[in-house]
Amino acid sequence: MKVTVIMPVYNEAKTIMDVLRLVNTVEFDKEIVVVDDCSTDGTRAMLKKEFGDKSCNIRIFYHERNMGKGGAIQTALRHAEGEYVIVQDADMEYSPQDMAKMARLAVETGAEAIYGSRFLATWKSTSLPHFLVNRFLTAITNVFFRGTLTDMETCYKMIKTDILREADIQANRFDFEPEVTAKLLKRGYVIREIPVSYNARGYDEGKKIGWRDGIEAIWTLVKWRFKK
Predict the structure, then answer these.
(1) Angle of helix 176-186 relative to helix 68-79, nearest 10 degrees?
(2) Residues 6 or more apart whose Cβ sits within 8 Å of residue 103
(3) Model pTM?
(4) Which of 5, 52, 188, 218 has the greatest number of CB atoms lying within 10 Å of its CB?
(5) Which domains does the chain have, with CATH numbers?
(6) In degrees, to the nearest 5, what angle opens at C-alpha 140 toward C-alphas 137 and 146?
(7) In this predicted structure, what is the pLDDT of residue 32?
(8) Predicted local distance difference test score (pLDDT) of residue 85
(9) In the chain, at which residue ranges do the beta strands (DSSP E only) sit?
(10) Residue ranges, the chain, pLDDT below 70
């Protein structure tokens, strides 16, 4: 079973090469599709220098304007060749080794979607305010769509490629997370969860999601609750 690791990248020059190295060392059948979302900090030049003339399991696409995380995922999804896709942020918050556990579960169960939950074991992987916001958004998701999730906002979402394509994701920003979850649950797909490790970074280290994204997530959940 082949997995397409989708990596949206925007201004991650400090971490991108380390993340790619770590993902490449994880032992499961995979391809890596990177989409640089018009970075301005040297990330693009770094990627072109390192991979411009190489033929390997890493394919890189470049946006000519910034389209947001959801937009980058949509671009990568059009080129995905794996049976499953999983999103890997280009920072060091998640451990790529956890993807191997998710891939094994996919092989064993044929699950339609597997989420890597940061909160199945403990909430202390992040700050209390961020945990409470995530808990609130996850609770709304469960109420609206009859789910039993513990971490709707997790980056680690492993989903069958054909199911994700059929979902026709429209989100361009961080609203990708609530939109894809809402559509999966609304269409009756079962989302399984397994615990993953998480090392949250601060805004001074480049964290990009903020309170406006929380409001956008609520609006997205409300919209897809009532939209056919």
Answers:
(1) 60
(2) 1, 3, 28, 29, 30, 84, 158
(3) 0.90
(4) 5
(5) 3-226 (3.90.550.10)
(6) 130
(7) 96
(8) 98
(9) 3-9, 30-36, 58-62, 84-87, 113-117, 157-160, 191-195
(10) 52-56, 122-125, 201-211, 228
